[in-house]
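pasting for the record
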Amino acid sequence: MPDVLTISPSTKEQIVRAAEQLFAERGIEGVSLRQIGAAAGNGNNSAVQYHFGSKDQLIRAIFEYRLPSLHERRRILIARLHPNDLRSWVECYVLPILEQGEQKESNYLSFVAMLQPYGRRQFFATLAEEFQQATQAFHEQVRSLLPHIPEPLRTHRIAQALAFSVHAAADRERAQAGGRRVLPFAVHVSDLLDGLVGFLEAPVSPHALAALEGADPDDLPLIP
């Protein structure tokens, strides 16, 4: 099948945006390809399958549609801020996520938040190498700034902080779509960054250390 990015760009974009919205609203399994095609304004019942082949291919296309701008925004922030401490690195990575949720008719963060319950996190491992490298570089930078947190707790905290930022952005995205009042964006960003940095930097308690020492080594993940 030809690369989806070269087939009818306007039709492709309409389908991708419709899929993003429906997945965000109903979940991955709660919508069919035909429903997506109808929402995109395509009268051909097989149009989505023709262009994308399957629901999994369509999910990947949503990432390919959104990630380039997020990646570029992170690159610009890093070049401008020259991050050298934990807060600035977290800001460079998380701020583009939060900004995406502010875009008119954005459903991307709600879509991403929906993926985890449906076991589709493997899509992150199939993304273009440049996106994977950027994420890996962020993890490495943050790990180097948290030497007082032992592994695997350090890597676990980073993953949890990123997951929380996505869900926080998704909650705000849905609140705005529903016409509910939210904090001013600058306040929301500053408060969320404070919380994420505090969570990442928090000392490990004796209780957590004891639990880690008592854990079965076979149950602990390998740290890259």
